[in-house]
Structures are given as C-alpha cells and as structure tokens.
Amino acid sequence: MLILLRRFSLWAALLGIVAVVLMVRQTTAIEPMPPPPSVPVQKPTARVIAAAGLVEALQDNTSIGVPVSALVKRVLVNVWDKVEAGAPLLELDDRDLQAQLTTQRADLRVREAELTRAKRQHDLAQSLRASRLVSQDESDTQADAFAVAQARVDSARATMAQTEALVERLTVRAPIDGTVLQVSTRAGEYLMPGASSAPILLGAIEEVQVRADVDEQLAPRVKPGSKAVGYLKGDTQNPIPLEFVRIEPYITPKRNLTGSSAERVDTRVLQVIYKFPMVPTPRVYVGQQMDLFMEE
User: Whole-number mean pLDDT of the chain?
Assistant: First the structure.
C-alpha cells in the first residue's frame, strides 16, 4: 500500500511539472505577425527620395474667416458647390447695424431739412445784400450757417455710408474661384475671428497639388524641377505622375503625421510642392495622404 502511494505521488509530481512547462510555453509563445492589409509601395529605382505628402487644393486650401464675432444668419453654400470670386458664402447677424442705419437715415433727413432752410436764408441774404438791404456781417453769417449745414449733411452721409459698409462686410464672400470643400457651421452658431476651425473651406480642385515633407537630412539631395511619382495610401497599382511646382525655402516642423509607430514627431522637413490634374481614376480627395518618390 505504501509503495502504491509513493508511485501515485511520483506520477502526480511528473504530471504537475509537465503542466507547468506547457503553460509556460503557451504564455511565452510569440504569435506570428499578421500580414499587412496592403502591400507597401516599393521604390521604383534606387536613386529616389521617398516622402509623405498631403493633397491640397491648387494654390493651397483657403480657410474662410469672419470679420467680426457674430451669429450666423444664413449659410448660402453647400459642399461641392462651385463659386466665383465675390459670390456670397454666408451672412452674419446684422440687426444691431440695421437699427443704427434707421437712426442715421432719420438724422440725415433732419440735416438735409436744415440745409434746405440754411440755403434758402443764404440765397435771400445774398439777394438782399446786392440791394444793400442787409449788412455784410449778416450776409457772412448766413453763408457760414449754410456751410455748417452742408458739413453736417456730409458728416451724416459719411456715417451712414460707414455703417452700410459694415453691414456689407457681414456678408462673407468668396475671395477666389473654387469649390466648397467643407462647411462646418450652421445658422445660429456663433463665430469669432481667428478661430482654429474655419467655418468654410474653399479651393480650386480641377487641378490639385501635393505638399511633400522631405526630412531635413535629405533636403540637400532635392533638386528643383525633379520628376516625381505618387501613390495614394493603400493603392500601389495606380501611380500618379506629378509636375514640379516649387520648393518652399523654409525648414518647418513636421505636421503631417502618417500614423507609423516608428515616426518621429520632432522632425523638421523641407516642403516640396507638386501638382497634377484631378482625374476620375483613381479618385483623389483633398486631404488624402500620398507616398511620393522624387528623382535625385
């Protein structure tokens, strides 16, 4: 009986050791890396400079601002609308200025009535002066009163014109011909000048540009006029030929982040601008990221 008990204890200990070994192997096993959702773009040749870029409207995206802090009265455009320079985009609340205009119009009518009376008295004094029925001082006094009345009318008109200009400024208009890319405001919202988010984003997208960020260490290798080809993120089958536009001669902190875990955020980059026509295939949208390969 004692021998059987010892054998059982031995087998139980062995089974415990095997279980611990299997558990350790399972917990420390390294799972294989899953395949990437799309095959990364390969360099077309060895002598190229790779960079990440961001698609923009031609001549940069135009962020529409507001001149004063006010409520939005009406939004007059929608996304994808094509507008010409000077077309109204949105209207701000102008009730306070309209109230001022009502008062100023009434004041102008009073000033014009005073001017009419002063002119009549001035003309009468001038005719009587010719007949020597009034003194020179009286004639001069009437002339001065007429000049003051005229100045008051001019001042009232200038004040009203200023208020009308302020009212006109509350209709925000397109500064360029382009397409409405984004509308992020609604009627009744309160807008302020200099806000971080523009209420309307405008741009010409018949032809678009891509702003490539080249690491400052590679900046000396970039040549003006160099050819380049771009690939949209996730699309390795449709290269897009790019036309050189310019190099912006200022090294700036990197802001266009690709999301890579190995990406450094303290990098400074040289920005190189290329352009290409907007084509239906592959469909390109403003704000998309693009992989660029520039010839050295």
Answer: 84
Looking up tokens 């003006």 gives 224
Q: Which of 240, 242, 239, 233 is nearest to 287 (CA)?
A: 233
Beta bridge partners of 272: 212, 247
**Rounded-to-integer distance, Cα 279 and Cα 238, Å:** 12
pLDDT of residue 60: 82
Tell me which residue has tokens 């192997």: 25
Determine contact, residues 83/174, Cβ cutoff 8 Å: yes
Q: Tell me the backbone φ, ψ of residue 170, rounded to 5 degrees.
A: -75, -5
- pTM for the model: 0.69
Other beta carbons within 10 Å of 191: 20
Q: Are strands 178-183 and 200-215 parallel, antiparallel or unpaired?
A: antiparallel
Q: Is 208 exposed, middle or buried (0-12, 13-18, 19+ CB in 10 A)?
A: buried
Q: What is the DSSP letter of 133?
A: -
Q: So what's the pLDDT on residue 43?
A: 62
Query: Cα(104)–Cα(108) distance, rounded to whole angstroms?
Result: 6
If you count them, how many residues does the chain have? 296
Statement: residue 139 has pLDDT above 80: no
- Backbone phi, psi, residue 126, to 5°: -65, -40
Whether the bond into 36 is cis, omega within 30 of 0: no
What stretch of H or E contains 210?
Answer: strand 200-215
Cα(204)–Cα(179) distance, integer angstroms: 6
Question: Which of 211, 110, 202, 100 has its CA nearest to residue 161?
Answer: 100
H/E element holding 101?
helix 95-130
Task: For tokens 């949105």, name the residue.
Answer: 90
Structure tokens at 24: 């350790």
Strands of 5-135, DSSP E: 48-64, 70-75, 82-83, 88-92
Question: Strand 200-215 and strand 240-253: pairing?
Answer: unpaired
